[in-house]
Design goal:
Its main location: membrane. By secondary structure, the chain is of the alpha/beta class. The chain is built from 25 helices and 31 strands. Strand 11 and strand 12 form a beta hairpin. Helix 8 runs parallel beside helix 14, helix 17 packs across helix 25 and helix 18 crosses helix 25. The protein is globular and about 75 Å long. The two termini are 27 Å apart.
């Protein structure tokens, strides 16, 4: 990823770690093999291991709740029990908004900023409100472990002057201020028998991050958990006159601390008070420091002594005696008040800058002069001297019983706060939002009652200190992806997760999807659903980026959401779905509008007693042909509408008449011609022998048309090296005949009859030919090959036979032999990812483009199967495939014994899938909008018609639609895509796909009805296309700018008011930042010198033809854990994927990572030997043979289950991906980690968290 995305030091990140443009080097804090040093802990919930030499603190009577146990007590590596973590320990940074399908903004508290209007003195909205979150919020879609419902913002003015300047005596907070909890009523005793809350004990909520590599061993000196607010947000070491943090740690197995308290804070007798005192803040959330003045023990000199055993002097300037009202002891059992300004003349605490906007950003990385850095930097920064902070997984504080899981669960669900507009039936700003924890500084309420917040890790606030405005001080202070050295400040588990989103959609929207409503947003492509066509085309055939179209171009410009369609005209239907019915009007032909030529569809309105119909696309009226006339019923509908698919369905086919055919003659069945390179490379690799031995199996799989019993497609064979050889395989010949064309300058077809035959009639002759070819060329020494004349030979053969068809070309090396289409080697991978990359990504000659256009004109599609051992210039030769609707399959360093099976499966898939030949596609729209830009593999000779020599079920085309007039709000937008094609049986047909969308004048309606996957598929195709004309930095910058504009416009116009420090995302676009980052990091857009030029051209071509299910999986790969596989399942199901990050992996695991092009099987060094033995046939992970490309076929249920899963993934992806086995900490691991989409890239491209920070900065700059 290029440096232009770097978040600057504003985020409190040290400069060397902001998005370096080059590969990470040791100086960046990420060792080049950073994975090696990460001891990844177990992922499953389970009792954590107690480290030797540590024991939880026993409760000590009389001890105060704000003294933490030594931090060396919590285990270094604990399982992920996030579902039991109190909200107080989830990172505050991000808050997700969740509303009904409507306004679901997802909010993140990211930067300090002002409160929303009305937050200052408004009554607390949820005081006596409905118990929205009491027993598990109904709206939390993203499962356990995602933070508590968010809040809007702390109620503070946007800019607070430095505390020292405050010259107003402190007063009570304004009544009703939301972040002030309610004090106990006068005279009301604390609730009896209620222990105070405290952080969960060690067996509750461990970290999910790996411990840092420089952490002390258990039982030795304590490590320090999340920093206290005053240091961590600003990265300052303690003042120089204090001893370093680790100078005097409490002994690990010391007795409980119960030192007497000095007079300023006497120990409190009697039962502990269960309600928090006025102003007690919530504890800091895991992964992010508390705000200053909110969650940490008072410094010495502020009315509380230093902790025992740490005899530091008070901090300079903080030793004044408290003023009246400031230093009095709090109520019994209650920590001091907070939320009051510091005393007049008192400087801010060390490490805490004055909160004025101008200084906030520049101060993050400065330390006081001369301050030594403390030695032990475990989690970003150490706590202040003398203050060990309880970490999220520590034993309970002295004198406090551990929290039960139920209390924790209730606590997580009991928060709902925040001013702002309330939408009916929704939660405020996405309260209950699935992914985001709340910003700090809010109190918890349930059923209108204040929840008891644990004084645990948060500690009482310092007297006399203002909380920071905006909720998340200094928002995102550290770079988030430095795996071994520092734990992330922001917990990535709180970011919107595609895993959670797909699971929620699967849960809520699987089953039957009925297409009877205009503008109905379909389920996600990852969801298993069955389409019932009732007037709109199935989303498998056509998807729109928006289902509510703004009525004016102005709204479109402001929101920047693209209006695009992604069309897969031949997509497969699933079981229980009907294929599109075929309608035959005989000689009449399809009924069409007289003006715009739209085909009869459910949107046509019959008038004048059924004698005429009005077209909804262009409003013209057309006479109904006499043969098609039918009377209308009392509602104006035709009496026969339910007998006519074209009047009630969204997708159907018409049989075409001769005027829709070439030369006005009905077509012959299409043919497939195998064009095989028999030069030295292909013979030596075993390819020629393999193909010839398996051709019989391959041609058994020719596609069968709907309603037919067998295929009537024909096949032909051509071989070539430096000349071209045709074969006559007529069924009545005793042996095949070979005809050689030596003059490759003037290619012609030497035989007419007998070149194309069906496998049935010529079976024996084909068998005989397949035995002869390997023998004829077995000892060839031809190394120079041609390519263009061989493709031209196939084209001439189809022309001579007067039929459409497809060439399957098996080619091995750069065509350097003298002749048409000769290419020179211009391989220079150093140019990739630079401004000059397009010189090697665009064709070096126009000969192949011209050949592609000639092929399209004859209905001849070309699929290239490439078997290169060196540079072959896919950018140039691939143009033939691009223009003819074909594709390139690449098998670099092909060896028949290792890759043969994979190739044969791919050829069979290619040849057998549903396909349309010799086709033309046009998209018509209703007035006010029109299609303008088209992306995919096809040729356009005019501005409206896409010519595809072939299009199959796995290819998609993206079409951008633009306004050319204002729309009316009542009408809607109507779209009709028509594909005219020849079927595999030779029937000329029209496939019609109709889609109706709503129109809207409110932006909120647009944002409520978008399809993020379609947007990303479209943007990826558009960006890939732009790379041929613009420099890569400009292309990627424009994507980020557009995404920021989409989200900023939503924030400004649709989200309820809240602090600028929160990132708010619309519900249906909450994954947009993640997917945009994945797109920017993908090889297609950013592939640099670490890949070959051919690889880069190949993935760019792949992205151009991807349908949406393929692109979703390509940009965010699936990471599938195998260790907990249940082999007894029947059938074996692919385990649920996990988030695509190294944080979710551990070295006891075995994982499959696949993105549709690559498939890796990663084996952790600590993997269960029993699993390894059963699956790999080796006693331990270190002995597994990683050179193999297939798993051994062992006779046990586990081996069978794992092999079934690998096979199932290949079937889903329509490609037999090569299986690459990767062992932890070995040479291939960096390649594997390159595809972990949420992590920082090896090239310095940002992690998901880093990119969110960057996006938030972009959005804020747009808003300001």
């Amino acid at each position: 990823m290029n440096p232009q995305y770097a978040p600057q030091q504003q985020f409190g990140m040290p400069p060397p770690q902001s998005f370096p443009g080059s590969r990470a080097s040791p100086s960046q804090g990420i060792p080049p093999t950073s994975f090696q040093t990460v001891p990844l802990g177990p992922q499953k919930p389970g009792p954590p291991q107690q480290p030797p030499g540590s024991a939880p603190f026993p409760p000590a009577p009389g001890s105060t709740p704000n003294m933490g146990p030594p931090s060396g007590q919590f285990p270094p590596n604990m399982p992920n029990l996030r579902s039991q973590v109190p909200p107080s320990q989830l990172p505050p940074s991000m808050v997700q908004d969740q509303r009904p399908p409507g306004f679901p903004p997802t909010q993140f508290a990211m930067k300090p900023g002002g409160p929303p209007p009305g937050a200052q003195n408004g009554p607390p909205q949820f005081m006596n409100g409905p118990p929205q979150f009491q027993n598990g919020p109904p709206h939390v879609q993203n499962g356990p472990g995602f933070g508590p419902p968010p809040t809007s913002t702390p109620s503070l003015p946007p800019q607070v002057q430095p505390p020292a300047a405050t010259n107003k005596p402190p007063g009570p907070p304004p009544p009703g201020q939301l972040n002030q909890p309610h004090p106990p009523r006068p005279g009301q005793p604390p609730l009896p028998n209620q222990p105070p809350f405290q952080p969960p004990s060690t067996n509750q909520a461990p970290f999910s991050q790996p411990p840092s590599s420089n952490q002390p061993p258990p039982g030795s000196q304590p490590s320090f958990p999340q920093p206290t607010p005053t240091q961590s947000a600003f990265s300052q070491p303690p003042p120089s006159n204090q001893p370093p943090v680790s100078a005097a740690p409490p002994p690990t197995n010391a007795p409980p601390v119960s030192a007497p308290q000095p007079t300023s804070q006497p120990p409190v007798p009697g039962p502990p008070v269960s309600q928090p005192p006025p102003g007690a803040g919530k504890p800091p959330l895991l992964g992010q420091p508390p705000l200053p003045g909110q969650g940490q023990p008072p410094l010495p000199g502020h009315g509380q002594p230093p902790l025992p055993g740490h005899g530091q002097p008070p901090l300079p300037g903080h030793g004044q005696p408290p003023l009246p009202g400031h230093g009095q002891p709090p109520l019994p059992g209650q920590p001091p008040l907070h939320g009051q300004p510091p005393l007049p003349g008192q400087p801010p605490l060390p490490g805490q800058p004055p909160f004025n906007q101008a200084h906030r950003q520049s101060q993050f990385n400065q330390g006081p002069p001369g301050g030594p850095m403390p030695p032990n930097r475990q989690y970003n920064q150490p706590p202040l001297p003398g203050q060990p902070m309880p970490g999220p997984n520590q034993p309970p504080l002295p004198g406090q019983p551990p929290l039960g899981p139920n209390q924790l669960a209730n606590q997580m669900q009991g928060m709902n706060l925040g001013p702002g507009r309330q939408y009916p039936g929704s939660t405020i700003n996405g309260e209950g939002g699935p992914h985001m924890p709340p910003p700090l500084n809010q109190q918890q309420y349930m059923n209108g009652q204040q929840m008891r917040a644990p004084p645990g890790p948060g500690y009482p606030p310092m007297p006399g200190q203002q909380p920071a405005p905006g909720g998340g001080v200094g928002s995102y202070p550290q770079p988030a992806y430095q795996q071994p050295q520092q734990a992330r400040r922001l917990d990535p588990d709180q970011m919107p997760s595609p895993i959670q989103v797909t699971q929620d959609d699967q849960q809520n929207r699987s089953g039957i999807f009925c297409t009877n409503q205009k503008g109905l947003v379909p389920p996600l492509v990852t969801t298993n659903f069955i389409v019932q066509d009732q007037g709109n085309s199935s989303p498998r055939f056509i998807r729109s980026s928006m289902y509510n179209v703004p009525i004016s171009q102005d709204i479109m410009k402001q929101t920047a959401v693209p209006f695009s369609l992604v069309i897969s005209p031949m997509a497969r239907t699933v079981d229980q779905e009907y294929p599109p019915p075929i309608v035959n009007f005989g000689d009449l032909g399809p009924v069409r509008c007289i003006r715009c030529k739209a085909y009869m569809c459910p949107y046509m309105q019959f008038i004048d007693s059924g004698r005429r119909f009005q077209c909804l696309f262009c409003k013209a009226t057309t006479d109904v042909p006499a043969e098609y006339f039918q009377h209308l019923d009392h509602t104006g509908q035709r009496l026969d509408r339910y007998e006519r698919p074209e009047l009630v369905l969204g997708t159907y086919e018409f049989v075409a008449t001769p005027e829709y055919c070439r030369n006005n003659a009905l077509p012959k069945p299409p043919a497939i011609i195998f064009v095989i390179d028999v030069s030295y490379n292909n013979v030596k690799s075993g390819l020629v022998h393999l193909l010839c031995s398996r051709i019989k199996d391959i041609i058994q799989n020719l596609p069968v048309d709907q309603g037919q019993e067998k295929s009537n497609m024909r096949v032909g064979f051509i071989t070539y090296n430096s000349s071209v050889h045709f074969y006559n395989i007529k069924g009545n010949l005793a042996a095949p005949q070979m005809l050689i064309v030596g003059d490759i300058q003037e290619m012609f077809m030497p035989l007419l009859d007998g070149f194309l035959c069906t496998p049935e009639e010529s079976g024996p002759v084909i068998d005989s030919l397949m035995q002869q070819i390997p023998a004829m060329f077995g000892d060839t020494r031809e190394t120079e090959t041609i390519l263009l004349p061989a493709i031209l030979a196939g084209l001439e053969a189809l022309k001579a036979s007067e039929c459409a068809g497809k060439l399957m070309v098996f080619h091995s090396s750069l065509p350097t032999a003298e002749g048409p289409g000769k290419l020179k080697n211009r391989d220079d991978r150093k140019l990739l990812a630079t401004d000059k990359e397009r010189t090697i990504l665009t064709p070096q000659t126009q000969a192949y483009n011209q050949l592609g256009q000639d092929c399209v004109a004859a209905g001849c599609s070309v699929d290239l199967f490439i078997f290169n051992n060196a540079y072959i210039d896919i950018a140039t030769i691939g143009q033939v495939s691009r223009l003819t609707g074909g594709e390139v399959h690449k098998y670099t360093y092909f060896q028949a014994d290792m890759d043969g099976e994979r190739l044969i499966k791919d050829v069979i898939t290619n040849i057998s899938r549903p396909i349309a030949f010799d086709s033309i596609m046009r998209v018509r729209t209703s007035t006010g909008v029109r299609p303008t830009d088209f992306y995919g593999h096809f040729f356009m000779s005019n501005t409206t018609d896409m010519e595809l020599a072939a299009v199959d079920c796995d290819k998609a085309i993206a079409v951008e639609i633009k306004h050319d007039d204002k729309l009316s709000e009542e009408e809607g937008v109507y779209i009709q895509a028509a594909l005219l094609y020849t079927s595999c049986s030779g029937q000329r047909r029209l496939r019609i796909m109709n889609l109706s969308l709503k129109t809207c004048s409110q932006m909120a309606d647009l944002y409520r009805n978008c399809d993020c996957d379609t947007i990303i598929n479209y943007i990826s195709k558009q960006a890939t296309y732009k790379l041929f004309e613009h420099n890569p930095k400009a292309v990627k910058d424009s994507i980020v700018t557009r995404a920021a504009q989409i989200l900023a416009t939503y924030r400004k116009n649709c989200a309820s008011p809240s602090s600028a420090g929160q990132l708010i995302l619309p519900e249906c676009m909450k994954l947009l930042p993640l997917y945009v980052n994945c797109l920017l990091k993908s090889d297609a857009l950013s592939g640099g010198a670490d890949m070959t030029v051919d690889d880069r051209s190949f993935v760019m071509q792949e992205v151009m033809i991807m349908d949406i299910p393929t692109s979703v999986n390509y940009f965010y790969p699936r990471l599938i854990p195998l260790v907990d596989l249940d082999p007894t399942q029947d059938p074996v199901e692919i385990p649920a994927p996990i988030r695509c990050t190294v944080d979710k992996m551990n070295e006891q695991g075995v994982y499959i990572l696949e993105n549709g092009i690559h498939m890796f099987l990663w084996i952790g060094l600590g993997a269960n030997p029993n699993f390894v033995q059963q699956v790999f046939g080796a006693p331990s992970a270190i002995q597994v043979n990683i050179e193999t490309v297939a798993l051994p076929e062992l006779d046990n249920p586990l081996s069978l289950a794992v092999r079934t899963i690998v096979e199932e993934i290949r079937i889903q992806r329509h490609k037999c991906m090569r299986l690459t086995i990767v062992r932890q900490r070995e040479k291939l691991e960096p390649v594997f980690k390159h595809f972990l989409a949420e992590d920082r890239g090896t090239d310095g491209s940002p992690s998901y968290v880093d990119f969110l920070i960057h996006m938030h900065k972009e959005i804020r700059s747009l808003l300001s």
